[in-house]
Amino acid sequence: MTEPHPTGAGDDLRRDILTTLLPGFPGVAAPEWLLRRLRDGLGGVCLFGQNLASAEQLLELNTALRRVNPLAVVAIDEEGGDVTRLFYDRGAPYPGNALLGRIDDVDLTERVARAVGEALAALGCTVTFAPDVDVNSNPDNPVIGVRSFGADPALAARHSAAWVRGVQSTGVAASAKHFPGHGDTATDSHLALPVVDVALETLRERELVPFRAAVAAGTRTIMTSHILLPRLDAEQPATLSPHIVQRLLRGELGFEGVIVTDALDMHGASGVHGIPEAAVLALAAGCDLLCIGSDNTDAQLDEIVAAVEAAVAAGRLPAERVREAAARVRGLGASAPALPASVASASLEPVHDAGELVRIAAAFDVTDAARDRLAASDRLGTVVRVDTVANIAIGVAPWGPFAVGAVAGTGATAGARWPDAADVVVVSAETPLSEPASLRGPVLVVGKDLHRHPFAVEAITALRAVRDDVVTVDMGWPSDDRALADIATFGASRLVGEALIRLLDATLAAPAVVASAPAPVAVDAT
């Protein structure tokens, strides 16, 4: 009889390294290499839209992942707004953070987060990389915007805490992001390294306020950002900076949970170092769970494990630091809600009535001129859809009223006249608007972050130059002067699209309905 080979120190280190890694993978079924890695101790997986085909398929996938490693973290970016994975094929049925901030009802925010958590738990997910607690102080921000609760630190703080409480009441762990704050950037860290050149005192008064609130609310994890703060660390972005991760987050804020990196395949983290070296630096900085990306391979994990092993052997990275990180990740996995036996479809998507849509629409910023132009006609003539390239976090999920049109029979406004009764013209950077004077009026322009896209500014300017029946709808974060936003919705989820249709129908058909709208009603998002 052959005696079992004893586990050596090298095997233990390798398992601990694997436990700190959180890759993504292509397809809707777990590849064999991923299942093997999970058996060997891989920390878990991060799911993206490409991994979801249906509720039943997702639960089957998550069941397979967690059965081979009961401590595996199954994480997903479900922010309950423009960034959605559960509803990537049809848009999210939630208001999104910016609108929740404008409504400013922390009970509502907590209920929405609880609904998100219940849906995730019902499908076997254990962590959501949400809420986004960044203070969106820069209206030109290309990656945060309506993912933020707002530009006011105190408002962002109270809603961040409410969101953490709500989602974690379901057993699903929250992840406040992107530490120490991605709101004052004009660069997308997926594509480059943003620089936030502010003093620590400014961070304490602005960016860190909602993170402190999230920590006080008990957030299980916090996600770091790939941004450079030269007055704190002139060489390394936050994810790779011991000063920011250990001294600021662990020390000053007193956070004791799992520190997660944003994806290391983003240029802001690995553009200089490459992913394996970025993984070494992130662990050395004090991060515990390393998101690798969305489309990773077995060979990539080999490279990362080898790089970390070499760093430990060379004395660059203490083995104890790796063990500490792995222990935190296993503790996070051990706290996960139980796997459900089957999908309870009725609980996955909240049902909203017309009164709830009125409340959401009441939080829009609508000019009197827009109401007057719409009230001058009983129907829309042309919808100009402004298609911009969404940042990688949002992806290509259906958005706004176009998501409503793509999902037959959903929502309180199913069967609404718009946009079916209007001509739809699509404008993009590759397809400019032609002959604006010939469009059937009134003309409704619908886009996101319109002021940030020169082709959109050009199209709106051309329309306004030749006609007086143009109404612009910005479903992103508008410029401070609202110059291109006659209607600003502060979100483009499917639910926000339904509320926009409700507003338009009421204004076009009977202006008095909007002018004398009933008082806000409580939204039951459970």
Count, helices: 19
Q: What is the overall shape?
A: globular
How far is the first residue's CA from the last residue's CA?
Answer: 59 Å
Give average pLDDT, whole number.
90
Strand content: 5-15%
* Classification by helices and strands: alpha/beta
What does this structure look like?
By secondary structure, the protein is of the alpha/beta class. The chain has helices at 9-19, 32-39, 55-68, 97-103, 106-122, 153-168, 200-205, 208-216, 242-252, 267-270, 275-285, 298-313, 319-334, 354-362, 368-375, 400-406, 454-466, 494-509, 511-515; strands spanning 21-22, 44-47, 73-76, 127-128, 175-179, 221-224, 258-261, 289-291, 365-366, 382-386, 423-427, 443-447, 470-474, 487-488. The strands form 3 sheets. Strands 9-14-13-12-10-11 form a 6-stranded mixed sheet. Strand 10 (382-386), helix 16 and strand 11 (423-427) form a beta-alpha-beta unit. The protein is globular, with a radius of gyration of 24 Å. The chain starts with 8 loop residues before the first helix and ends in an 11-residue tail after the last helix. Residues 1-6, 408-417 and 511-526 have low confidence and may be disordered.
Question: What are the salient characteristics of this protein?
Answer:
disordered C terminus, 39% helix, single chain, alpha/beta, 5-stranded parallel β-sheet, 14 strands, disordered N terminus, 19 helices, 526 residues
